[in-house]
Amino acid sequence: xxxxxxxxxxxxxxxxxxxxxxxxxxxxxxxxxxxxxxxxxxxxxxxxxxxxxxxxxxxxxxxxxxxxxxxxxxxxxxxxxxxxxxxxxxxxxxxxxxxxxxxxxxxxxxxxxxxxxxxxxxxxxxxxxxxxxxxxxxxxxxxxxxxxxxxxxxxxxxxxxxxxxxxxxxxxxxxxxxxxxxxxxxxxxxxxxxxxxxxxxxxxxxxxxxxxxxxxxxxxxxxxxxxxxxxxxxxxxxxxxxxxxxxxxxxxxxxxxxxxxxxxxxxxxxxxxxxxxxxxxxxxxxxxxxxxxxxxxxxxxxxxxxxxxxxxxxxxxxxxxxxxxxxxxxxxxxxxxxxxxxxxxxxxxxxxxxxxxxxxxxxxxxxxxxxxxxxxxxxxxxxxxxxxxxxxxxxx
Amino acid sequence: xxxxxxxxxxxxxxxxxxxxxxxxxxxxxxxxxxxxxxxxxxxxxxxxxxxxxxxxxxxxxxxxxxxxxxxxxxxxxxxxxxxxxxxxxxxxxxxxxxxxxxxxxxxxxxxxxxxxxxxxxxxxxxxx
Lengths: 396, 128
Hints:
heterodimer, A: alpha+beta, 20 strands, 22% helix, B: alpha+beta, two-stranded antiparallel sheet, 1 helix
């Protein structure tokens, strides 16, 4: 294991990767584990410092578990949007008077404020993912998640047997169209609570990988945030070797598949992690906005490769929520994907390598539509759920 | 071209061909004039042969270049193109690493798989 440089690196600890040609380090971040792999290893210190800066920024901007994060302040500040706490003097962001000319889908008043460029980008990516997937990846599931009990950092969730008698109530999902973003001006309908979890880690991995790669000119970087992986710079020979796993502790035939990633991102969504029990039911963190309850489709795990990690993240989550139609949608997008059904059967799509150690060839052009204020997108593709969720607003 | 061709309709003689009063058109030309005609014919033949060789070389060159670029040119990047990697090579004077075991795991959040001593695989489930 190559030694990690001390300069600027935070609480990283080295990981033995069995080689000295790359440096590997991990630390806790964003409610999960961040892992960074760098070559040449001598420049790892600067790369880790760059990753630290990006992760700290994202945490300050988009963590709904931090009371002092920007998104928490948004929830407190906007009229009618508060679910916990209350607006305090000096709370950022700057609040504007609610606009009178923009009705919300629920005809409830919209609160308006100016957010930072970083949070605006995170919300923009979440809205782009929602549009792309026809609303199946929805940033307004935050309230429903809280209602289901996922209202704090997962490690702090009580596994309370006393709550067995209380069945979980479907949470209210206002819908992504109740969020409007114009540049840095954010408008939220009353009661909307944002959860950027389906895209924020991917976005964070993309940001961190880009920043770190800039510190190792000629070299390469892999950044993994809880299994959402982005790579930048020059890959190793044949690509970065990544194990795609399903089980938290895989063994035997379910050990997983070794693949190679040379560009873009790779993300996995699974209902087998972040589970908790309420009302005699085992719940998980991927909420179907059509029901307000944890997704109950045929896939337990979805791994997707894409032009960037945010897109891979959104597609993987959408596949879990969509259920059976996800296979056709992923194939139409040309995204390499590996779906695992509840019975353990594996379905490979979009050129996902059949053999072990095969290269995941990701599209060079991203499939998600351009986020508001974002860069150019690829060709328009049909949404996963055309026309948006097919259920009456307010219904469960 | 071995001989001067007989005059054909629409043909135009080179300037000065029939300006010499000693050799009017259709006359029986003396040997010295025929030697001149032979020399001209030989010159034209050499030029034509040279042109043929030049054309052949050009065709062969274009064919070779076409074949080379068909196999070595980078593909365009349409919507369906993919990103692949090129084995080997160096960057910034350092050889690219060649890795055999996984350096990261993509799974449900919190799962990491590492390689321990003697190549043993270590699976850790963290959810911080």
